[in-house]
Amino acid sequence: MCSPGFSCDSALQVTYIVRGSGRVQVVGVDGHRVLETTLKAGNLFVVPRFFVVSKIASPEGMEWFSIITTPNPIFTHLAGRTSVWKALSPSVLQASFDVDADTEKLFTSERTSDAIFFPPPN
């Protein structure tokens, strides 16, 4: 699974599934899901500017490549080293999720620097 991420610089992303299969979710700027589907090798999908995308491989795995419409794309992820969560103050997180300080501290303490997640071995 890749952490949900988006282009900060208005780049359009065209992704081709080379091998394997998996699920893809795309969420628009208004927070509504615009695509949730299973893709397989040979499929192509487009992620519009500023939309968030997450790719979740099936057990067989999924390989893809993307073409980006800008020469110097700037991507950020909702997890990992470049996570946008790091920019938010604890009080903003508490208000946004309607949680107390202890829950917010638990949330921030569980974050890692990984943007690509692997399932545990069987």
Automatic annotation (TrEMBL):
Q: Which UniProt keywords apply?
A: Disulfide bond, Seed storage protein, Storage protein
Q: Which Pfam families match?
A: Cupin_1
SUPFAM superfamilies, sorted:
RmlC-like cupins
Supply the CDD domains for this chain: cupin_11S_legumin_C (cd02243)
Cupin type-1 domain location, by residue?
Answer: 3-105
The record's family statement is:
Belongs to the 11S seed storage protein (globulins) family.
Protein name listed in UniProt: Cupin type-1 domain-containing protein
Give the organism, scientific name: Quercus rubra
